[in-house]
Input
Amino acid sequence: MPQPSIPSSSSPDFSGLWIPLVTPFQGGAVDHAALSALTRRLAGDGVAGFVVCGSTGEAAALDETEQLAALDAVQAAAAGLPIVMGLSGYHLGKTTAWVRRLAEWPLAGLLVPAPHYIRPSQAGLLEWFRAIADAGAAPVLVYDIPYRTGATLTRETLLALAEHPRIRGIKDCGGDMAKTRAVIADGRLQVLSGEDHQIFGTVAEGGVGAIAASGHVQTRRFVQVLRLLAENRLAEARAEWQPLQPLIEMLFAEPNPGPLKALLANGGSMRDELRSPMTRASDALRERLVALDARLSRP
Ligand SMILES: O=C(O)C1=N[C@H](C(=O)O)C[C@H](O)C1
Output
């Protein structure tokens, strides 16, 4: 259940490593015990906060009751760390109604992608994000992910959205470094890398952090990379970062979160179970991942 509302900060801090939590399943139902244990472990590993119901959380396969139950479970286990709730949809009225309902929860933010499937104009995208930001109580992170939504946010649109007092950051999967640089240079939106292999480059160029599925594993290393970058210790950050590259490649070699769940399941923290049409990782990839993770875990 929601806890008493906390005031939403006028300058929220989205820096550091945020984990877009997987949703564990057991026998077709959400496995809340596994979700809580995962959240507690990650909180102890130094992450900055959590995203519930991101794409990695298979939110598209969860109904509203399941989404709210997952949010409650994470809130209870997060040791006070901030929580961002993911949204998706293409019906503006339904989405703003959902956002009004979510205002009862003490969220650090809402992660909002463009509406998928319908491919509106830039003017339509401005209306979409402004209406959602107006409807809620929490700061909005724009989730720029054209390869999932089919809609590309231009640099001009992002900078126009930055004028809205509640739109405070971007999870950047846009694939256009010039656009990312322009948003960083503008300075009004906090830029988080949303592409795991781009974390280093984005943060070295002035991004504040990352929302990265890979950070479920080797979490302390990812946290350390971001800390070292924040302290301008570039060579040390690079030395921590480079061994993570093959891990990131393998985690995205098949549709996310299949490989990630396979690896987490191998460690015993959940079942290797996804909701159709998402599928388990292949046995071959799971074996390679397990071997690599074991190598990376050696002192
Ligand atoms: O759920 C997320 O947020 C993320 N989703 C990306 C994706 O699979 O589209 C990957 C990223 O690591 C986090």
Remarks:
- The domain at 16-241 is CATH 3.20.20.70 (TIM Barrel).
